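Hi there, hope your week has been kind to you so far. Thanks so much in advance, here it is:
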Amino acid sequence: MKEALKKRIIVFAPHPDDETLGCGGTIARRINEGYEVIVVVITDGRYSFSVVLGIDSDPTPEELKEIRKNETIRATKILGVPKDNLLFLDFEDNTLATHEKEVEEKIINIMKQYTPEEVYFTYEKDYNYDHQATSRIVRRSVQRLGLPSIQYQYSIARPGTCGVYGRIRPLIDAVMNIFKKNYVKIDVTEFLSLKQKALSEFKSEISIISNKQKKPITQDKDHFLKNNETFFLDR
């Protein structure tokens, strides 16, 4: 008897770690449910230290690129993603807005190859420009292909990086979207410890790895460790 094809989902992460922060629990849950999960990391994340912390050496952007890639490999392995299902497009950090057509063609080819039931990508109103560009690109790609994929947008609005409004905007949007019936929660309680273990691999985000650092980039990891992961839903 011919084996039934697995249902597939694709998770698009603008930077190495977004996939785990935004939907690590959902990734683990979907794999447990029998889905094949593909994770696509679009940029190399090389400039997070220079942009957020003003650090350009120890590590250099090129060194940080490799650090973050290896962290993502370890983290997604913990979540259950096979290494062959982890794709790095290696566009330079902070440049997606100027490479949208090129990124779009790559994403379209990936979607043609895997034909996902569900697609996950960053929220269109996130404060980061690469996140916004990812949202635009993925939505256009789904539309161009005419895929029936359900589109889940996850928000990475880290506390303290955008002032008070940056912290409460996701809540405001959530309340507004309840009335539009396109705001969903996925229970990841069973997989929370797995997500926590995966997040611990991102030492460059949650700890001090440089002699020039005074603080980690992500100072509130627990913000991303909740029983429910929330998404803005498009069909």
